[in-house]
């Protein structure tokens, strides 16, 4: 059956850089320009054109295992300053696609990671490179300051 064949193949899970949906792609089909099953955006492994949503469960894989720079936005839906920073992070994710991974962590839904990094105020932006925390910005800071911190870890 199709399901048995799918489960027996080597598959890669690629999270859509546009909508965040996880897509199971057989490795033999990676050169066929796969698209997201939900939003139909092209799937390029490792290239994220929008912030990636991270959870306690996939934090290690999404942030700490990433060899390049990662900006992790620690936020909550009820936080006004977090909502004001969100469009800036969307723009930066697109502008730095392929060079920097922008990730978002909802602190209400993911308390383990939030407490691990001592998040007491939001928004807090954590800058990682090679799995190491390099910088921490607290508060709704201007785009220029966020970008300066990004360039410093690139």
Structure write-up:
By secondary structure, the chain is of the alpha/beta class. It is built from five helices and seven strands. The chain has helices spanning 2-8, 59-64, 80-95, 111-116, 143-153; strands at residues 11-15, 22-26, 52-54, 69-75, 101-106, 124-129, 132-138. The strands form two sheets. The chain has a five-stranded mixed sheet. The chain is globular, with a radius of gyration of 16 Å.
Give the overall form.
Answer: globular
Topology, number of strands = 7
Distance between the termini: 46 Å
Helix content: 25-40%
Q: What is the overall pLDDT average?
A: 87
Biggest sheet layout: 5 strands, mixed
Annotate the secondary structure layout.
Layout: H1 2-8, E1 11-15, E2 22-26, E3 52-54, H2 59-64, E4 69-75, H3 80-95, E5 101-106, H4 111-116, E6 124-129, E7 132-138, H5 143-153
Parallel strand pairs: 3-5, 4-5
Antiparallel strand pairs: 1-2, 4-6, 6-7
Short description:
By secondary structure, this protein is of the alpha/beta class.
List keywords for this structure.
single chain, 154 residues, alpha/beta, 5-stranded mixed beta sheet, two-stranded antiparallel sheet
């Amino acid at each position: 059956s199709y399901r048995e064949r799918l489960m027996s193949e080597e598959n890669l899970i690629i999270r859509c850089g546009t909508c965040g949906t996880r897509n199971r792609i057989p490795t033999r089909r990676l050169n066929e320009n796969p698209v997201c099953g939900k939003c139909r955006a092209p799937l390029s492994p490792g290239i994220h054109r929008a912030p990636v949503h991270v959870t306690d469960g996939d934090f290690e894989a999404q942030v700490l295992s990433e060899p390049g720079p990662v900006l992790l936005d620690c936020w909550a839906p009820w936080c006004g300053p977090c909502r004001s920073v969100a469009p800036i992070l969307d723009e930066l994710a697109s502008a730095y696609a392929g060079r920097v991974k922008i990730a978002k962590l909802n602190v209400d839904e993911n308390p383990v990671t939030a407490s691990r990094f001592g998040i007491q105020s939001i928004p807090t932006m954590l800058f990682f490179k090679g799995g190491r925390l390099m910088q921490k910005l607290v508060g709704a800071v201007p785009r220029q300051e966020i970008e300066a911190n990004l360039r410093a870890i690139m």
